[in-house]
Fold these 4 entries.
Entry 1:
Amino acid sequence: MEELAAAVITLTLYLLVGTIIALLSRRVGIKTTSDYYVAGHRLGGILAAISYAATTYSAFMMVGLVGLTYATGVGAFGFEITYLLSTMFLLSYVAPKVWKLAKERNWVSPAEMISDLYGLKPLSLIVAAMYLLALIPYASAQLIAVGRMVEGMAPGLYWLGILLGVVAALIWTGLSGMWSLASTDLYQGLWMILAAIGFVVWLFLWGGSDIASGTARMAEKGLLGMKWSPLVFVSYSIPWAFFAVTNPQVVQKLYTPKDERALRRLITLFTLFGLSYTVIVTVIGIASRALTEVGRLPVIKVGDQVTPSLLGYAPLPLAVFVFTSIVAAAITTMDAIVLALSSTASRDVYQHYLGGEDRTAVNLGRISILALLLVLSYVAYLKIGFIVDLSVLASALLLPLAPVTLIGWFYGRRSRVMGYAAAASLASGFLIGLYWALLHGARKSLITPIFGLPPTLFILLVSTLIMMIPLLRR
Amino acid sequence: MRDKAYLAWSLLVLTLSYMVPYLVLRECRDLSLYAFWLALTLVHFAVTLIYLRGDVSWRSWPQR
């Protein structure tokens, strides 16, 4: 009962402060879709950086990655760090170009960017359809995570978690779009990193020398070496390596900084946040496994249960602080996805196809946020097993966007032939991923080779080859 | 030149992050694999900071 009361108080406080921040952000004034979806390209560096980080790092980190490290050892750190290495490069190398083009061409939605790069209007609809199919399960999985966290503290109240998540997302995203999203992301990002630091410090104080002796036993089992097979490592890490160019919720964030200085700050602060968070989370996973090896913790068979099990030993204030940080991680990711999807509805469909006015498009955007959240909550409420499985596939299904986006940024030149190649590349890659998932199941499809190659590498190669044909003919 | 050097460096870093764990540190029995990835990231971050601070790189995008 004491746990429940503490969780409710902390969660209420968290939601209240977030709502006050969102309400304060209304002062900026929203007149156009550019103001609403990309903060009129006027975000400061710190706000943009933490918002980017909070969007990127979902509940997967503190729940999934801790469990993955516990089960598979140091290889899980490599899986996550290849994402950071690649993103550091992609952001530093291409973000300045994207940011400049976004300002010049007034890009608001990433789907609009693709169709503009290739000068082919229907491309935005193909991209929008891909986003919807890939990201609705991913965003629903975040809501399911919120529901499960609340259910873990208060059995039977899964629905309340869904309701709280939806209301928070509606207020924090719907009020002022990117302004309220980024402001609440900053607050939630700080909550996430502070809770993670507190968690790891407590774990080492609690575990003491047992962690060192347990780590030595892990070495005997090969958990400090590379236990991941090359097939699994390549297949899992490739979609994440291109995450920064394939996922609309982070691509859109590149349009937001107010100047070059803010963009540089976005890249450096995001990297520092990402590195710290990744190290903390994987150290928690290794330390937990070490404690299991010496018998301080029971053997935990389900990876996602490692963090909840550990929190059972932590002091109550820390446990609820970490619990709320996981809710925050899920909500920040879901908010950004909903905003990105909504921008596609109001900008790509309503404005570009139906010729709608800017102010009406903003209101339509708010309505589409509500509609999307209703769909997500319904899907999450049903707790359909394959939704979580499909969410694993999201980044693989969006992988064909990597060559299309990168080639578009460098060679697009609004060529119609290139536009047709882009459409074929997107459709082929997406359909291969979907077909493989239907054939083998979502999870297994990622580790079942296609012609001897890791499936995600195969998808990437096919999409890239199709894009190369018109380039080679020039 | 600066951009090409950074591109080449980044590709080298990514290749190392995939190859070294399998070719050198697969069976390691201490935290050297963890330390390798961490050190690689820190060095890459330092190089990226230098690249980002260079004025030339941010203004040398080919004109469309």
Entry 2:
Amino acid sequence: MKRLFLLFVSVFILANILGSCDKIEQDDYLVFSGAAGEWFDGSGVSDHSQRAIIEKYTGVRCVNCPNADVAIATATSQYGDKLIALAIHDSSSFTRPIGDTPRLSTEDGNTWSNYFGVRAAGEYPAALISRTLNGSVWDLFTPTSGINGRVDNIINTATQVAVSVDATQSNDAVNITVNLEFLQTISDQMTVTLLIMEDGLKVTQRQADGNDDENYIHNHVLRDVITDVWGADIDCTGQSGEKRVAQFVYSDYKNEWNLDKCHIVAMISKKESREIINVAECSIE
Amino acid sequence: MKRTSKIIFATALFFQLPLWGTAQGILGGHVTGNVQFDGQVSRRDTVIGSNDVPEKLLSNARADILYTNGNFSAGLRYEAYLNPMLGFNSQYSGQGIANYFVSYKTQTFAVTAGHFYEQFGNGMTLRAYEDRYLGLDNAIRGIDIVYRPWNGVTIKGLVGQQRYYWDTRGLVRGFDAEVSLNDVVKSLTDAKTRLTLGGSFVSKYEGDETVLSDVSGYKLNLPNNVGAASVRMDLSHGGFGLQAEYARKGQDPSIMNNYIYKNGEALWLSASYSQKGLSANLQAKRVDNMGFKSVRSVSGEMLYINYTPSITKQHTYAFLSMYPYATQSTGEMGLQADFMYKFKKETVLGGKYGTDIHINGSLITGLDTTVIGGKGTDGYTTSFFGTGDTYYGDISLEVAKKISSKVKITATYGYMVFNPIVEGHEGDLHHNHILVGDLTWKINRKNVLRFEAEWMGSDSHYDVAIDDKRCGDWIMGLVEYNFTSAWFVSISDQYAYNDGIGNYYNISIGYTKNATRLQVGYGKQREGIICIGGVCRQVPASNGLTFSLTTSF
């Protein structure tokens, strides 16, 4: 009987390990899906630039990440507004705050990290530029080098869709306007992903020598994805020459964010492949 | 796993075996297998609704090969759907190694790596199985371990992904424990009363995805881990038996339940009694929101983790099985009673050779529900003992009697009620009366002739808008001749003589030699569904040639 008892205790423990299924309270069945926007015929986009976005997956305990920040800052200064930088803190062990400092992780960033295989690879820093593939896998790389070649490949191609974004703050909301102009016909379903990122965050960062820099300034930090994490559908035909405009209202920002140092980014993607075909950025006026 | 790596695995498996054998001493095993090839040619028939097949020939083929050597076994299955026969999902198109595994089993321990089939209890939390005639294969690719630490105790654990045509999806984990008290407790070893208790837990994991709610601007907060658990018992005393299983499932919004958050539950009960010449069985079940798939957004027959036992009779005669019942995992209640008795020889009713009677009846209804919302809510509430609409009911009486040493007759009467809503159609209930006469004449040791006549009277009428070609009154005749123990030929015709449409004739010829069987048929197949164990698939109309070759070695 003693052995039988031990067996059942073991089974009970195993059941509890396996049985950790999720329970969602009734009030939490629905969550904000992100602004979907309403699309109308627009007046076009004056700047037809093809831009790239570098999404850097990072963490405050990642000792090599400051080197990537230097390399990315160099690249953004070289490419000007043709290259937009975004720093994503997922929920890897590298993102655990050092001491009593704020956590920079976001659920949306974690969703992207899981989808693009960053957490599975476990190598930080890691980056993707405009969510391109290398063969059949995502072109993840260590962004301490190899940035320029990838950016050149993107910005030197003909623009398919020109995009601009404007954002103004009024009352307790940020009004965002996205303009599109199709320069080529695109048959794929398109999405726009709007996000808000913040510059100038002083948060302790571990350095390459192992020391913690309490005065480290984090820029381009993803704060929230305003649309659904995979974007809102663009209501369009995709015909060359088509001009569309949509307005979005965002009010879920937090008081501790400094909107003066925040930027709105609009990423235009192919819904199926999730490849980013153009991107634009603006500050909040 | 990519197709290429499967081929590498299989190649390695079979060509490396001698090397392993050198090292592990496993040479000297033996190889067994079977091969099946089914082909179909169909052409347009506007009356029954069949269409020309662009490929002219459709075929499903498979070869199972198994290597065993003592406790070790390994196998693979090659499948080719070029292109899939009518009624099989087009996503099967293609060919390749669909199933492979290695296994090692002793009396106390068994481990299988690769594809495996497994069942916990009645399958209400987990049943990975395959039915080639339904085009269903929810094999799990992963690791399956069975451990019997003591006599009467069995523990199973598994983890893996389910087959999805030529791919695998989802992530399923589960364990099961079963204890036979009579084997574990010494004082009960020789007891007439036998009791086995069991329990299982299964969970699945899915990542996040966007499913918009009906409320603008909001999406569903979906659970990533969903669990289902069950407890069961099997009690017997002499000829009496009582089995029960109760299962619950956590919140599992999915396309099957319109993304509601209600917990699922199912109860299955079976009481039986048997003695020589008599058996009786009573079954009951209640199922509420128990559909459990490894991917929430996939509809159709694939990726089911669990199985709800069917409690309707699997009829064999054509008209009795024309309306098979598909288990409604979203919600149903049912009862089935089954009684068999053999009147002994040399009695008034038994006559010279005895008489067998078989009575079966079942009734399935929906649940008594009160709707409280749609997608993104708890959906509905139910009254546990309340019943809803009638889904299905049938009762049949079969009398089988041998009237001479060479002639046996079977007469069957059946009455059936069918609600087309279980197949997704609107419409009135169908009420059918069915009569079947079956005469088998064993001419001599190698020649057998069988006649079958059926009639079905129905209050249903064929309506072009609904296009249910089973409606109306039907008659059928069949003659089957088995000769030389190797050949058989069968001719049949089903004809809708009133309020229906269609004349479905068939002729088939078959030849069997040792373990090889070849069958060729020509005729018409009515559009409908076929069900095995309450699991069903659509069968489109066809008009043409079918052929089948099976062999084993």
Entry 3:
Amino acid sequence: MTATTALPAFVPMGGSTLGRIGRVLRTDRLAAIGLALIVLVVVLAVFGPWLAPFPAQGYGETNVADRNLAPSALHWFGTDQLGRDILSRVIIGTGPALTISLLVVAIAAAIGIPLGAIAGYRGGWLDEVLMRITEVFQAFPPLLLAMVTVAILGPSLTNAGLALAISWWPWYARLVRAEARSLRDRPFVEAARSAGVPAWRILPRHILRNCMTPVLVQATVDIGAVVLAAGSLAFIGLGAQPPAPDWGLMVAEGRGQIFTAWWISTFPGLAIFVTVLGFNLLGDSLRDFFDPRQVKR
Amino acid sequence: MLRFLASRLGTAVLVLFVLTLVVFVMSRVIPGDPAVVYAGPKAPPEELARIREKLGFDQPLIVQYVNYLGGLFTGDWGNSLATKRPVLDELAIRLPATLELLFAAMLLAVVFGVVLGVVAAKRPGRAIDGVIRFLAIGGVSMPAFWLGLLLQVLFVGRLGWLPATGQFSTEVEYVSPVAHVTGFPLLDSLLTGNWIAYSDGLAHLVLPAVTLAAYPLGLIARMTRASMLEVLGQDYVFTASAFGLRDGLIRWKLALKNALPPTMTIVGLAAAYTLTGTFFVEVVFNWPGIGQFAVGAMLAVDYPAIMAITLLGAAGYLIANLVVDLIQARLDPRVRLS
């Protein structure tokens, strides 16, 4: 921690960002697997209501006559203790899981990026204050901070999302600040400054645009991390509440029957794992490719 | 060195101080009337008034805060609402179980993580490297609570090899109870030669430790691989192999020794993150530690307990980070502590 210095700003390597990502996917099989998993999850999230075999049960309609059925041709993932088709619940749950995760990352980035850019570019007391604030936040495992916040605000999916965003923004602030600091004294920024371009135009044009690659790589990993965190919160009762088709909640609901009806917990948990794995595989490859020196946190 | 330590400890104290303030304000302002939280929604008005006076809620917030801070220093962290016993006592009796679990998990993660990392670095880009990378990222992506349940289904339900939950079997607690020596149950059973309890405790430890180890193991394997590759590219490794040193010797002694400092950094950070992991693993395995207590406290909105856990968690995290910095400076003389 003490030894780490600010990362050198990303040096463009030629070709568009999309072209470079294409190269990663062609050369790295795990990245391709990751992208395939992400595409699968996104398709399920968007078309879930049409793809689920029993959409009404996915949203919570009970069917007590068919409870705790083992996986079969009709119910691929079996049914839960209220007779709901687990495949449908898992598919319908994809939308909310991805939405909340995207929102959390978007809010964290929307707070962290401008603060980090201004602090890194301006320096001085503003930078000092901001870094002290982020240090306080980071003196704490993000998930524990989120748990405490939800416990005090009251358990719900909204509060869980809010708590996660509060715990996540400092990471973006620090990431962008480090980039902005190293960009600040680069010739093209100095040229703009000496030509009289005001800071409010330099920041978006020269600083933010050149920080975007590491931010996007981080966001890729974080979308998965937030799915995992939100699922964990729901599992212990501090996230989505019944009868929401939430993956973490569904794992918790099946826990009591784990030895008699293993499928109730197994498949929703698998959905979390597959989603997080997809984002982590892709994010890890992108990070290796764009900045091999960066240590994962 | 001393100056570094002093400044880091200063920051740590400041951080903890700010945390007490934030958590205190959150716990007093957000829920509305804390006396209602304490007494329950059906309590009569005179009961509420009595509680307000007894717990000092009728005083200005700033006075309450000063009293709370004073209590922190004198060892009075308040009573748990759920058990009505001092929070510090509740945490103290549960800490050893959590530390034993954490230690076992980190031991597994370091041993297997380093070995996998070194093996992966032997043939970068080849099949074995890809498999290990997939496993490492898989470990990091795995929801701990889900992995725990899967292991229970397999090793308890199907195979019947291991016990499902708890730290010791109920029979063992009656037939061959663990005598108190250090307070760490498994260690005490070993020290007192209580083999029945020791083997029973070990069997109970396997599944939760493996579950908890998945995440740090993945991180450590990735980090070891990366730093091994860096070290293996150095001139002195080339020289050593030119002098005819055996490949295994170069890899496992020469290179690994120099690849360890960055790995140690990630071990510390991974341990700090694994702290949170214990919450979920302890719930799944009914492990009698702090994590399980913490989850219960959060669900029951047990403020004194939540505040104590917050402080303890932050302190543990800060200490882990500090230890990482110190170890790193020790292993790598180029690191300047400033």
Entry 4:
Amino acid sequence: MLTFTIRRLVLAVPTLLFISLVIFLLLQLAPGDPMAQVPLTVPPEVKEKMREALGLGQPLYVQYWKWIVQFFWVEPQVLIDHWFGTSFSTDNLRVISWQTRSPVMDIVIQRIPQTLWVVGTAYVVGILIALPIGIYSAYRQYSWFDQIGTFVAMVGFSVPPFFSGVLVIVIFSVELGWFPSIYDTTLVVDSWESFLQQLRQMVMPVMVLALQITAQISRFMRASMLDNLNQDYVRTARAKGLTERTVVLVHVLRNSMIPVVTVIALGVPSIFGGAIITEQVFKVNGIGQLLIGAIQANDLPMVQTLTFIFAVLIVVFNLIADVLYGVLDPRIRYD
Amino acid sequence: MTDKERFVPDEGLTPASTAIPAAGELEEFTRPPRSQWLNVWDQFKHHKGAMAGGILFLVIVLTVFVGPWLWPLDATTIDIRARNQGPSLAHPFGTDQLGRDTFARMMAGGRTSVSVGIAAMLLALGLGSLIGVLAGFFRRLDGPLMRLTDLFLALPLLPLLLVMMLLFREPLNAAFGPEQGIFILIVTAIGVTSWMPTARIVRGDVLALKEREFVLAARSIGTTNTKLIARHILPNVLSPIMVSATLGIATAIITESALSFLGLGFPPDYPTWGRLLFDATDYLQQYPERVFWPGMAISLTVLSVNYLGDGLRDALDPRIRGR
Amino acid sequence: MNFKAILLGTIATAVLAPAAFAEGGRGRDGEVKIIYWQAPSILNPYLSGGTKDIDASALVIEPLARYDEKGNLVAYLAEDIPTLANGGVSEDLKSITWKLKKGLKWSDGSPVTSEDVKFTAEYCMNPEGGCASLSFFDGVEKVEALDDLTVKVTFNQPKPNPYGPFVGGQSPIIQKKQFENCTGAKAPECTEANFNPVGTGPFMVKDFRPNDVIQYVANPNYRDPDKPAFASVTFKGGGDATAAARAVMETGEFDHAWNLQLAPDVIAKMEQGGKGQVQVGFGPLVERLEMNLTDPSPDLPEGERSTRKHPHPFLSDMAVRKALSMAIDRELLVEIGYGKAGKVTCDLVPSPDNYAAKNDYCLKQDIAGANALLDEAGYKDTNGDGIRETKDGKPLKILYQTSTNAVRQDFQALIKEWWRQIGVETELRNINASVFFGGDPGSPDTFQKFYADVEMYANTFNGTDPQQYLAAYRCGNEPKPESQWQGENINRYCDPEYDKLIDELARTGDIKKRGEIAIRMNNMLTKDSYTIVPLVHRGRVSAIASSLGGYKMNVWDSEMWNIADWYRIK
């Protein structure tokens, strides 16, 4: 398994480089103009000058090479400088956003806490609710609990966040006045009071997101448990006199985890990617909001960098899932 | 599982599902063999959830496809004097801000949403299952196919759709006409960008399955790979595929609405459920019924497909047949 | 509090407010919270040009003069407004001399001098800088600092309207000391300066998070010791217009929300929340239909579509354009789409008063008249499918495109229905705004390329003078392949008469005469040729909390123009 992991990690480098090239070409090919949001009152000649100042006129390979150098060479230096107080990176141009004319990575780092707080919490909450629901629904298939669980999960998944978000805002902010409708990203949690405030402003976005995540994972958990509950080894385990608890929660659960691990691993990168619509609705200015804003403004360096970080996470977490398969089911071997 | 534990006789812990058929059904064993699909259908028929889901689904499909022929009002007819009306006899679901009949719009929207949802889901499912099974089953294909999956997972959706629109809208319009062309484009766009989770899930299950004893047994008696996949692997990965299918329909309907309000989807006078829901969200407080109808229609469609899927899965599982 | 009490309270504060306003010192009213649904990305308007960025920077940096809510110039950093009468503008209209107020200080305590003004011009006019306000410095030959407080701007030709440079929110004065090393290609590298400019305005930046939120505190060196009344400002960005309106009028979390293009009944319902109201101001913004005078047919080879080589098969006929305009009920469009935030208009330039033609030819919908006009012009439905054909058998089918936006899609549906009634079939298309308004020559969907028969959007001009706006319709200024599809003459309009008027307007200094010429030009484009079919004169809509005093809606400049005068009604 170790050799497999190392081989895959080594292979990840060319994979990621290829992905970055595809993303780059895709973004270049996509119609769009960083000047789209500049008012029509600015004459076309001026817009042309502004484009030139962004370096748009350069040939493609130059632009791509510049990004590669900035991302893989300059940005790590900046990070090292930041940690150790050295000065490797002076005078080297970093990846600069076209919207803000400032280093992309600085903004990303500014945004990560919001996203982790809200999307991360929602993900953890969602998994913690989904697993027990999925297990119990399968164990008592077609019971009332299962039926209600199915209904709620399906409705929860069918209702898109652009609607459910507004619905909870109207109920809890406008009518009841319990929670703020706009997330305060400047809040510093340094006291009990501010911690409570942070909790209050997180409740609604976490609720909306967790509903979606719970719906999805509990369905996969239930289906997979159902497949396993009727297997012969379950009968054997019961026949051996294992307690029902051990049979279900150890033997069946472990064998049912493969699809669930896949789904969870697919979801983890999206924690970083943020939840675009939910972040928009609640004004949690996290990574998702940054990405959609950058796409709308055609801020290619920003989109390229964010998507690439996202790609790295995808590759890493899919690798982790593959390793976990081997742990869950030792018969799976890759070599 | 530990070997140390002594064998303990069955103490009645076994749930009913694994019980041996009662003696009274002995006749069943003496009857001539029946086709497998007949058995499946028998099982399906007796599955209450599946039948309810199936009927509901049929009703929805009939309403949205046949309904517009019977209903006198057209989805695009504007009657400006009758705008923003509540439910009435003439307009059972009320009217919108331009006085268009919401019931007619729901039916017209449903036709688009249901077709897009199902077509895109089938495409994604087909692609996902194919790639998942191939990658899980053939070790040599695993690397390239999974890296391809990683690539697709990483591609930013919106620019990808913009590029597809740019490259294929005009040729498809020319070949199939504006409505068919955009339908094909949207179904392909959604299908091509949503097969990856299914592929990963199916591959994970296949990886575990192909090391199981019955696969080894089948292989040892010389079953070909194609047969092996069709008879032994596919039926056993059916349940995650079914879950993907139900979730996939909901995702496709909602993604379509996202495309439409970004200006990448159907023309603006073409209602769809997702778009009706999105447009109504602004009026949530004034006219709550306007969000209710499309929201409920999407949920009901997804629920019915879910129960259908459940029934199908149960019916195809020989271990629980006859329960 | 019941309604009566609120009413009494409002009257009481209205009476007491001026008194309360005069006394009390800087920072007495705590915090004011502003929400923009587009988040500011940078606080240097020279590098952005976006309204959100101009408004966010208006709290910090100021121009020499601004337009007030009526469109009159008011001196900000300048002592007074230079005119021909007071000798500030030279007789030959080729130079203007500004005098700075005495004793002005930057927020870091250093004095504001004419060198800063001169540097601002150099910064923007640097050819490598990509300055968004470059057109404000059009025709500037040189900027000289005559002494510490006097600046002279010389133009290379007579400028009837010399109030371009250093006037209005797009052209504020930046500090030389701070931006000295940031000119030209180095402009984007000065993140610190671009995010935290030193200014003369009532506030200074405490914390700037790009595309998210800005926190400001009162500037201790602001020239009026009693202002601003607020000690700090939170300027939040992001989300959508509905949510922003809700945060002001329903939940009361914010005090000011900007640019709320929402359906009138949505706004009316929110106003019932009682925590705030909507304010509307009318500038020259007009929502219009643009008629394509050239043929956009996809059958033409690429590079010839929508170019002057091929006139449009039927839209080049004025009768068709006129009929299309006559079929539209503009009153209804306003009622459904804009409510009190819109007015019916038949003009390209609806304001300011001096330049407005105030036409009324289009106010009444006349379907029968439109039908008769088309019959008379020879467009008959020969094959009985309900669609008229041209004399050589081409059906009157129109592709009608616009950007994605709920109100615009409602307009499309309504207009399509009206045009159906006069025997014209319409195909609708909506396009993502960032593609439609972008100038990507590779995309077929930009408004410049105009691969459609009719398109709808809104446009306006800066300040109070429409000269440049009207000059856009010059022959040859149309987007075409040779110019990478850049150009402002969207309709491909070409009339030598009109070009003569453009030149005449550029030479005329007398304000009354200028008005007459502009009105003639306006009529040539609208009433006399139906090249541009105006629909709605759109207002700028903002929501204001009931407790916010001193706010004055201003459409001629940044909305934040008088934030120093804002206060809390107690």
